[in-house]
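Worked example (supplementary).
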Amino acid sequence: KQEVTQIPAALSVPEGENLVLNCSFTDSAIYNLQWFRQDPGKGLTSLLLIQSSQREQTSGRLNASLDKSSGRSTLYIAASQPGDSATYLCAVRPSGTYKYIFGTGTRLKVLA
Amino acid sequence: NAGVTQTPKFRVLKTGQSMTLLCAQDMNHEYMYWYRQDPGMGLRLIHYSVGEGTTAKGEVPDGYNVSRLKKQNFLLGLESAAPSQTSVYFCATRQTEPDTQYFGPGTRLTVL
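After joint prediction of all chains, the assembly is encoded as:
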């Protein structure tokens, strides 16, 4: 059974710092992996999608990497800003399914 | 273009009462999903649909029923609410290319 874990559960950093969020999954048979952002009391917004054949994707200050063989993905945020404060979730889509398995998220606080 | 909308936004039920949550989308997506989000548990898939007239069970389907009579609507029903169903419920649609999920704003349900 696929399980997705995100560590740490919470993180506080000063503004301007570069940071890395981690996501690990137990079964490497995935179709893709996505990173989402969730603001308090809101729904999720897709940030980056990495197909199983890709190693990384970039969007602005965000860079996501995927190492399928080791069951790991990282989300790198450059030059963090207070507006980046939110919960970040990763989700994998196991091969052969239309379902997504979500991690429990990392709650990020960027201090001004 | 409203995207994904959910009705109602908040609801309080007594144990044993029934209710229906409505998810509506205007993006013409085939796939729709119902999740629940609980503290420390991440998002868990309740039921999903791969097209009009179809439904399938997710990870935690017990106590819930769904219907997809029209492509744009996905209904989640609770026949006899229990305190364990207190949660925030999210509806999502899936765009196939690129493979991206779009989430509604959520429904906060409390069962007393």
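Two points are worth noting when inspecting this output. Residues 98 and 109 of chain B are 32 Å apart (CA to CA). Chain B has a mean pLDDT of 95.
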